[in-house]
Amino acid sequence: MHMKEIKLESSLIVHDNLLAFDEKTKELLLASRKAAKSAYAPYSQFYVGAAVLLEDGQIIPGNNQENAVYPLGLCAERVALFAAHSINPDTSVLEIAVTIDYDRIDTDQAAFPCGSCRQSISEFENIFDRDIKIYILAKDDKVLVLDSIKQLLPFAFTKDLLNKK
Any catalytic annotation for residue 27? Predict the structure, then answer.
């Protein structure tokens, strides 16, 4: 019996503040922060905002929307992605920014997309056959940057697995 170990490695870049970015990316990051401020999270008290930058330059925000029946809510990333795609189905997503409302959440940790959101971002990379740059706006304006969801979800379930013979 032959066994092989495959090691995966992921990395990200950390910027100390927003000044490292061009005006459009700053606008995207600030849109995610603004979206977090108006998130509807009366049950978890975990306020998340996201914003996507489309190929045509539009920025579409989203925030988490909870429901007393927990599975019926939606995360900020999916709200932003689904809204963008429903408004502009033929326009690809270039970037997504995600943050939490650090004024209302007492943590120093950065909040990364959950598994469902990672899978959804992966789907949008597949739809348009391009990587989506991910920005995580952390506390004190630190920004973590990933080039693709593949860095957070290396074994994504994709349409290629569904191809029929």
Answer: no
Catalytic residue among 66, 77, 95, 125: 77
For 70-119, the DSSP string reads: GGG-B-HHHHHHHHHHHH-TTS-EEEEEEEE-TTTS---S-----HHHHH
| pLDDT (tens digit per residue) in 121-145 | 999 999 999 999 999 999 999 999 9
User: What is the C-alpha separation between 151 and 136, in angstroms, rounded?
Assistant: 13
With a CB cutoff of 8 Å and minimum separation 6, the contacts of 28 are: 51, 52, 53, 59, 95, 97, 135
How big, in percent rounded to 5, are the helix, strand and coil portions of the chain? 35, 20, 45
Q: Locate the domains of the chain by residue range.
A: 13-153
The pTM for the full model equals: 0.94
Q: Report the CATH fold assignment for 13-153.
A: Cytidine Deaminase; domain 2 (3.40.140)
Tell me 144's DSSP state: E
Cα–Cα distance, 150 to 134 (Å, whole number): 11
Name the DSSP class of 9.
Answer: -
